[in-house]
Amino acid sequence: MTVVETRPGLRAAAAPAPEPLAASARRALAVLRILLGSVFLWAFVDKAFGFGFATPPERAWIAGGSPTTGYLGNLEGTLAPVFGALAGQAWVDVSFMLGMLAVGAALVLGIALRAAAVGGTLIMGLMWLSALPLANNPLVDEHLIYAAALWVLAAARAGRTWGLARTWESLAHRRLRLLG
């Protein structure tokens, strides 16, 4: 533990440095990051181009379909009227698709993981709310698990392993120096 002088004559003990993650843990988190990013990116790509998995080609975004109508228009839960009213609105479609693309790309590339955690938690939180009451568990479903995983990845700085986080951080520091 080190001692830090906060003001002349006033000394405080600094918190000990955190234990570094083992290489195997860093690699496991990198795999989780890339896989979770693939989930977000796939949702974007399938809804945009309609590869016939969750979205048939005739309902693809590029074919004039709405990426939110299929899900939001068929809800049966407590908040179905609230979320159903949002189905097919252009601002909802664009926000959803840009969010899925941004979160997925950030995770796969390993950059801006805190921003991805915020955006991904917003998306997953709204999807969790739209599904209430849950079918298999009264509180927890995959949306909450994904949101928690996003925060674990951000806290562990998982973009530094097999990602571009180090480069991203150095670019961010350069930009901040130019502004200040």
From TrEMBL:
Keywords for this protein: Membrane, Transmembrane, Transmembrane helix
Source organism of the structure: Arthrobacter ginkgonis
Transmembrane segments: 28-45, 90-108
Protein name (database record): DoxX family membrane protein
UniProt key word Membrane: yes
This protein's record includes keyword Membrane: yes
Top-level taxon in the UniProt lineage: Bacteria
